[in-house]
Every structure is written in structure tokens, then in C-alpha cells.
Specification:
Elements: H1 2-29, H2 32-35, H3 38-76, H4 82-116, E1 120-127, H5 131-152, E2 155-163, E3 169-177, H6 181-185, E4 190-196, E5 207-217, E6 231-236, E7 252-257, E8 262-266, H7 272-299, E9 315-320, E10 325-328, E11 333-335, H8 338-341, H9 347-363
Parallel strand pairs: 4-9
Antiparallel strand pairs: 1-3, 1-5, 2-3, 4-5, 6-7, 7-8, 9-10, 10-11
Helix pairs in contact: 1-3, 3-4
């Protein structure tokens, strides 16, 4: 009980700090000098928006506490008549229950606030072991996420892809934007395994293949400053299958971030300018995620966070087509509705992952 009380005190201190920061940001937004600076006002508005839901919940909690204390004061007042005392007692009981439930909501809002504020991601899907079948599975994952995004009303942009001869994807990179996109899809990073009879199998044998998925919050220029001097740009001609030249102009772009060794190649567009813009979007997000992972590791060496870990070697999910079964190994969830899931009906899986992660975060407050 004492530990829970100490934890709650720390949570309340954190919430008070966030509310103070929220008020400070509002003050800055009303400052003509800041309002006239587009970069500053965008950055401040973004942070203000990320804090809004948590602060609103915290203020509702504070209002309940104030009303409960007022009713308790009336109850403690020796001059209060019996009828008013009875009403005050009812109000104290009701508000105490409301305070407890509201505080739970506030804590949940607090631990998930960082994820809720990310509205754009970069998703990279790559074929793993399994040859052509793995590439076909990567395409199936691509279509599954596209359908899910369409249901949620998110915008999907294909940033790059490499096709296999049978119509699968060796690699596909997507930009997905929309409210709650990171909160919902941030858990998809890792190894995905499929068990099924491949289209190329003539004897009906079940094969096991794999694909890897990485999901990164899309970093904006305001989120991370990458000096141009830290990046080497290589320009060359785009090439098609078999090395055939598809564009005589030097339109393909390769960016190399020297401090981290991260590289990005882009040749999908005929325009060098468009390839460069796409490559920078992906590079910025990969470098941002690189440093964010280092921060997370420093903060918590004993615990590996599920969201954003980007650990592609970890097998997170198995798709068994003969049994119409999907198993998420992280939360021991098995569903016998793979046909619906592969068509983009991921709401139940996403909700279970969010709830599991939320409980872990609450336990680690």
C-alpha cells in the first residue's frame, strides 16, 4: 500500500509538471514574437497538442478532489444539520469513487501519451527466409496493413519497393499518416512467420517462410536536426531488372549518415528531386529511431519495451493458413480467424496489444 501511495505521489508530481508546462506553452503561443516565427509556433503547438488530453484528464481529477474536500469539510463542520450531513456523506462517497476511477484514467492517459501524439510512421516490410514464397508473404502483409489503414481512414504513401518475379515484394517502404497510427501499428515491428502451401508447391506440402517488419515514427525536421555535413550523397543512374537502364538521367539517390553508418537508397521516381526528398524522409526517421532506442536503453536496461523496439530478429507472430490461425507470441494470443485478419481486420489484435503494453507501463510507473 505504501509503495502504491508513493507511486501515486510521483504520478501526481509528474502531472503537475505537465500542467505547468501546458500553461507555459499556452502563454508562449499568445506571445506575438513567437507567433510570428513559423518554426517555433509549429513546434510549440505540436507539444501543446500532445499534452492536451493528459492535462484535461488531470484537471477533471483535480475538480473531483476539490468537490470531495468541500463536501468533507461540510461533513466535519459541527454546525451542519442532519439533512445536510446526510447529503454531504452521499457526495463524499460518490466523489471518492469518481476520484479513484478518474485517477486510473489519468494514469492510463499519462503512460500512453507519447504514442498517442505520433501521427505519422515509416513502415518497412522485407522478405526473409523462404525465397519467392517469403516475397509473396511480404506482399500479403503489405496488403493487410493497407486494408487496415483504409478502415481507419489513414493516408498511405508508397515510398519505395522492390518486386520479385512472381509478383511478391522483396522490400516495400510505406509512409502512413493519421490519428493514432503509431499507437496502433507501433507493435508490428519484428519477425512475422507464415505456414502454408506456397503457390509454387506442386505436392501440397506446407512450407514455413518469414518476413520482417520495422515501424518507425516519421521524424520531422523539427524533431531532429541532421547537419548536411553529416550526410554523403551519392547520385547514379536508376536501373531496372537485370541491370537494364530505366532512366538515362542520374536520378537514383543514396544517402549515407556518417555518424551512424545508416544508408538509404531511393530510385523509384524518375525525378532526382523526388528521390532525394523520399530518401531524406526515411533517413531522418531511421536516424531519429536510432538515437531514441539508445535513450530507451539507457533509461531501462532491465526491461525491453515492446513499442518501437524495432527488433526484427524477434519472432512476434505466426500465421498458420491450414489451421486459419494467428498467434501473437508476445501476449500468447491465438485467434482462429486468420482469413479476416489478413483482410485487414486487426482491431482485436491491436486492442489486445495496447492493453497489454498499457498494463506493463502502469506496473513500471
Amino acid at each position: 500500500m505504501a509503495q502504491a501511495s508513493t507511486t501515486d505521489e510521483r504520478v501526481l508530481e509528474k502531472l503537475a509538471e505537465m500542467e505547468k508546462r501546458f500553461v507555459d506553452l499556452e502563454s508562449q503561443m499568445n506571445d506575438p514574437a513567437i507567433a510570428s516565427d513559423p518554426n517555433k509556433i509549429v513546434q510549440i503547438s505540436k507539444e501543446h497538442g500532445q499534452l492536451r488530453d493528459v492535462v484535461t484528464s488531470f484537471r477533471q481529477y483535480q475538480e473531483c478532489v476539490t468537490q470531495r474536500d468541500d463536501a468533507q469539510a461540510m461533513l466535519d463542520d459541527g454546525d451542519t444539520d442532519d439533512e445536510m450531513r446526510e447529503l454531504a456523506q452521499e457526495e463524499v462517497t460518490s466523489l471518492t469513487e469518481q476520484i479513484e476511477s478518474t485517477f486510473v484514467q489519468v494514469k492510463e492517459s499519462l503512460v500512453m501519451s507519447d504514442d498517442a501524439g505520433v501521427g505519422a510512421i515509416i513502415m518497412e516490410i522485407r522478405a526473409g527466409t523462404g525465397g519467392d514464397e517469403a516475397a509473396l508473404f511480404a506482399r500479403d502483409l503489405y496488403e493487410m496493413y493497407n486494408r487496415f489503414a483504409e478502415k481507419r481512414g489513414w493516408k498511405v504513401e508508397q515510398l519505395g519497393f522492390s518486386a520479385s518475379e512472381l509478383g511478391g515484394f522483396r522490400e516495400v517502404i510505406l509512409g502512413i499518416k493519421g490519428e493514432g497510427v503509431w499507437q496502433a501499428l507501433g507493435y508490428e515491428g519484428g519477425g512475422h512467420r507464415v505456414q502454408r502451401v506456397p503457390e509454387t508447391e506442386t505436392q501440397g506440402r506446407v512450407h514455413t517462410s518469414a518476413a520482417t517488419v520495422a515501424v518507425l515514427p516519421e521524424a520531422e525536421e523539427l524533431d531532429i536536426d541532421i547537419p548536411k555535413s553529416d550526410v554523403v550523397e551519392h547520385v547514379c543512374r536508376s536501373s531496372g531488372p537485370g541491370g537494364q537502364s530505366v532512366n538515362k538521367l542520374n536520378s537514383a539517390i543514396k544517402l549515407e549518415h556518417l555518424p551512424t553508418g545508416i544508408t538509404v537508397s531511393m530510385q523509384d521516381e524518375k525525378s532526382q528531386h523526388k528521390n532525394r526528398a523520399k530518401a531524406w524522409r526515411i533517413l531522418r526517421s531511421r536516424v531519429f529511431d536510432h538515437f531514441e532506442q539508445k535513450k530507451r536503453a539507457e533509461r531501462s536496461e532491465s526491461r525491453k519495451e515492446m513499442i518501437g523496439s524495432g527488433d526484427r530478429s524477434q519472432r512476434i507472430r505466426t500465421y498458420n493458413f491450414p489451421q486459419n490461425r494467428m498467434t501473437d507470441h508476445r501476449i500468447n494470443l491465438t485467434l482462429y480467424s486468420l482469413d479476416k485478419l489478413i483482410m485487414g481486420d486487426l482491431d482485436g489484435v491491436v486492442a489486445a496489444l495496447i492493453e497489454h503494453d498499457k498494463q506493463q507501463r502502469l506496473e513500471n510507473l
